[in-house]
Amino acid sequence: MSADILSFIIFLPAIVAIGLMITTRDVNTIRNIAFLTTTVILALVLKLYLEFEPSSGMQFVTNVAWIETYGINYYIGLDGISLTILMMIAILIPTSYLLLWEGKTKGYWINMLLVQTGVTGTLLSLDVVLFYFFWEIMLLPVFLMIGQFGFGDKVFTTIKVTVYTMAGSLLMLVAILYLGVAYHSEFGVWSFAYDKLMQISILDYNTKVWLFLGFLVAFAIKIPLFPLHTWIMETYKNAPTGAVFLLSSIMAKLGVYAVLRFMIPLFPEVYIEFSTWFVIIGLFGLVYFGIAALMQDDIKRMFAYSSASHLSFIAAGIFSLNSYGINGALYLIIAHAIATGALFLLVGLMQEQTGFKTIKDLGGIAKKAPIFTFVFAVMLFANVGLPGTNGFVSELLIIFGVFNFNIYLGVIAALSVIIGASYMLWMFQRAILQDRPEGSPELNMRDLKIKEIVGLVPWVVLVFIMGFYPEVFIDKFEPTVTHYLQDILQIGATR
Amino acid sequence: MSNFIYLIPTLLVLFGAIALLFMSMYEKISVKSHIFVSSLFLVIALVFALVNANTLYSIQPYDSFLNNVLTFDTFSNFFNILLILGTLLTILIGEHYLQHRSYFKGEFFSILLFALFGMMVLAQANELITAFIALEIASFSVYIMVGYNSDDSKRVEAIFKYLVLGAFIGAFFLLGLVLVFGTVASTNLADIYSYIQASNGSNLELLYVGLTLILFTFLFKIAAFPFQSWVLDIYRGAPMIITAYMASTFKIAIFSFFMRLILDYIAPIIDFWDTILQVVIILTLLFGTWLAITQDIVKRMLAASSIVHTGYLLLAFISLSYANNTILNIEAAYSIMFYLIAYLVSALGAFGLASHIISETNIKVTFDDFKGLAKQRPFLAAMMTIFMLSLAGIPGTIGFIGKVYVFTEALKAGYVALAIFAIFATIVSMYYYLRLIAVMYFYPPKEECISEDFNDSRVSTYAILFVAVLTVVGGIGSAVVFFIPALNIDTLINFAQLAVKSLFL
Q1: Which chain A residue has the Cα nearest residue B490?
Q2: Where does the chain cross the membrane (chain A) (predicted)?
């Protein structure tokens, strides 16, 4: 059982979803079944979390042949890094179910379940082709969700975002296949397992740079990094809250994870060579998206830019080549997923109640909905990185990391964090706290229901636990990161 | 007598065609009974073909009678299975359509089986005149089927274009044949091969010209670049179910003969066409993509996208790369075979489903007409989505595995730039395939397309479901997910490998 537990976690939502497709129950039942499924998964992941040994490498590995002729295996496993993100996904999804009120049709919940299969599959795959399989699969439910439940020019938006991201993925596919061919010509057998592909030594440096870029395009679009971010504004604005939550809180993080899991181990020397550039791009993205967020009036667009800004910061941490940076980036992945996930859900709730989409139409929320405002404030401060919250710990670690990498960039990183605080607090003041001007239309806003509060309590608690006792969590993935960095730097140095 | 078993499928089809011809003389026999009888013949033929599917053999039986013009081997058997299966599924999917159009009479099924007979002989031919006759039997049958119900002006246009162009390109084939005969003094492919081997590269000019002309026929029939423009009008004009038949089954039959020719017999001089083929691939992909994104009629879009798929297949062809008397990358041949299976399944599904939808009415033609299909007939919309995803090469479908296979071989053979170009064509193809899915799911139905009474529990629907299941199972395999080893992707690949190996016996 313990060997197959990962497969069970991956495929349970899909099986339930297929089962739900053929039932004719009403939406409430379907929603409850979906919720139950995700809590079962949460329980299983907690079990994994307790059984996991931080000091040893890949665990719970399943490796069976899928397409033998090409050495493509169903190869999944778990280490400290993926465990952390798996935990994050398992907590975020069920709680988000409690806050998503827009899901009024059966298809919505089926799609939510299918996405979960896609993202956990992507996270746990260790075979590159299998990874690609899930990486593409997880996009399709989002395509359907935006197209069916979105707003505005939703059909154009959904086709644009899908073709955009698939363009990146297909270029990555060429790189993947090229690596497989290189492995075949060196060793005479086919394999696409990432640890096997790491052994390739016949590729020259220039080819590796191209392959590196092939992978980078796919991940940079998903994250998104600076020049490839043009899809997010429209998407986050027109997409339903559920899809925005999935894209920003979970899938973007998988882009970062994939950089760590595949790109850096496969091309360590290229990574070391280019790291300065990527730290610079990351920091530039932090500032650029921050300034863009400052100027937005549409509240969802503002959060879209804010999310992109934080993810650029995460990327900067990852490329900074030391354990502070990478640990901080991993920690920020979780912190940001919690904070942004909650904020997107709360904003979705607010928009549905009030019907207003822009900051200048809102205001006076604090009086009508105090509990809502409290939770909103906690998440906002976590997002900004106030001491005592998880955001603070992670941002501090990343800044340390960048300082270690290069002192000037470190100064820039430390200073630019202030931009995040400014747009967030300004928005908070205008949209939530400030009283409404005389003669403006009536504001319809109820406070959180018990069910929603129950859903949000774990997130609030996590924000503070992670802020005050970071070692509880960092201990789980820190040994993996240390080993990982040693290996990478060693390989990079020897070549 | 022992050799006779290999002839049975072909003879059964021929016999079935003649039997149906006699049946059609009686007006009382309904279309339904014709469907039943033709399916029965095809199923029996399929069973006989499947008996030999997993054995490696290559024989030329009854040489006093057949004069070594036909080769029965695993390769031809592989194609026979695909062709019979394609025809059978065409009839079953079209069951609804064929009964709702009054112009389909009994003789239609006879013609369909004659077409299949021609294609099966083509797959077995190893002599140029036999190949030509088989090709013309198949082509003429298809011409007639394209022109069914000539009241429709589009249909008259289609049959005339097809007939004139087809006859024209047939003349090219004959001219090439004459030139080859003039050089080699034989039209048997084996003699051509030994001539090439003996010549050591000299005195081959006429042979080059002749074979180039013959390869023109190949490019025409599969709608590759300079000969692609007929596809749109003819696919548009033909009855929907015939379009499905042409796009899937007929295309595969063309590949069967030319794969045999190229792999087994003219491989030593194949380098000659290398540069030409590269240009053809690039332009095929370019034109196919450009045509596909500009279409508003679904049928034309599918037709144009079939040009793009031809481009991928040619990419696999060029990856064969020949040197030092051996084909360096024989795996590329397997990838062609696998891609053909993938394309047969997905194209047959997509075209067939479109024909099923328009059975009662005539109005599901443009993208707009497909609006709201998911709300009216969710089951069919889901099936259509599967076929579109497979054609686009999204993971989880057989089309993905086919693409991975083809691109891997192209990269292995060193055609990196071409592979990247083909990937860009795939990226654009996402747009026009996803567009149809978007139209089906994200819009309310158009007023005039709303009709209440669908009867979807009928043979056509189950046949479509079967094809959809094949598409998905072929894409994920059954060993990992369902723990049934027999239906795995490797099984299909092994069949393809066995078939190619039998060519070199």
Answers
A1: A67
A2: 6-23, 30-50, 80-101, 108-126, 163-183, 209-232, 244-264, 276-295, 302-322, 328-349, 369-386, 398-426, 453-470
How many helices, marked H, and strands, marked E, lie in chain A? 22, 2
Q: What average pLDDT does the structure give for chain B?
A: 84
Long-range contacts of B330-336 (CB under 8 A, 24+ apart): B330/B500, B331/B409, B331/B412, B332/B409, B332/B410, B332/B412, B332/B413, B333/B259, B333/B263, B333/B496, B333/B500, B334/B405, B334/B493, B334/B496, B334/B497, B334/B500, B335/B402, B335/B405, B335/B406, B335/B408, B335/B409, B336/B255, B336/B259, B336/B406
Taking alpha carbons only, the member of A110, A132, A148, A124 closest to residue A31 is: A110
d(CA B28, CA B32): 11
Is position A464 within any domain?
Answer: yes
Q: Note whether A305 and A296 are within 8 A (CB).
A: yes
Q: Which of B360, B364, B404, B401 is nearest to B384 (CA)?
A: B364
How far off is chain B from A179, nearest CA to CA, in Å? 10
What is the C-alpha to C-alpha distance for residues B247 and B224, in angstroms, rounded to an integer? 13
Rg (CA), chain B: 22
Tokens of A437: 């001007």
Domain containing A311 equals 268-495
Interface contacts (A, B; CB < 8 Å): 89
Q: Tell whether A70 is covered by a domain.
A: no
- Could you give the residue ranges of the DSSP H alpha helices within A355-449? 365-368, 370-384, 390-405, 407-428
The SS3 assignment for B335 reads: helix
Neighbours of B71 (CB within 10 A): 25
Cβ separation B441–A144 shorter than 8 A: yes
pLDDT value, residue B1: 55
In angstroms, the first-to-last Cα distance of chain A is 41
Q: Is the pLDDT of residue A437 over 80?
A: no
Q: Find chain A residues with C-beta within 8 A of B435's C-beta.
A: 159
How many angstroms away from the CA of A395 is the closest CA of chain B? Answer: 37
- Say yes or no: B161 contacts chain A, CB-CB below 8 A: no
- At position B10, the amino acid (one-letter code) is T
Give per-residue pLDDT as tens, B59-87: 877 777 777 788 888 888 889 989 999 99
Q: Which residues of B128-153 are buried (b: 16+ CB within 10 A; e: fewer)?
A: bebbbbbbbbbbbbbbbbbbbeeeee
Query: Any residues with CB less than 8 A from the CB of A241 and at least 6 apart, and which?
Result: A100, A102, A344, A345, A347, A348, A349, A351
Helices (DSSP H) in B24-152: which residue ranges? 31-51, 63-66, 74-93, 95-100, 107-124, 128-146
Residue keyed to tokens 């493509």: A72
Note whether A147 contacts B426, CB cutoff 8 Å. Answer: no
Question: What DSSP assignment string belongs to B82-97?
Answer: HHHHHHHHHHHHTHHH
Give the distance from residue B364's alpha carbon to the nearest chain A alpha carbon, in angstroms.
Answer: 20
pLDDT 10s digits, A1-32 = 456 788 888 888 888 888 888 877 787 888 88
Q: Give the C-alpha distances (Å, rounded to integers) separating B302 from A135, A283, B291, B310, B385.
A: 27, 46, 10, 12, 14
Any CB–CB contact under 8 A between B367 and chain A? no
Would you say residue A169 lies in a domain? no
Residue A16 lies in a domain: no
**What span, in angstroms and rounded, lies between the C-alpha atoms of B461 and B459?**
5
A:57-86 residues touching chain B, CB 8 A cutoff: 64-70, 74
Domain count, chain A: 1
Helices (H), A150-298: 154-187, 194-197, 205-222, 232-238, 241-245, 252-258, 264-266, 268-294
Is the separation of the CB atoms in A188 and A70 below 8 Å? no
- Model confidence at B363, in pLDDT bands (50, 70, 90)? low
Instruction: Answer yes or no: do A173 and B408 touch at CB < 8 A.
Output: no
Both tokens of B381, joined, read 């919309």
Cβ separation B442–A154 shorter than 8 A: yes
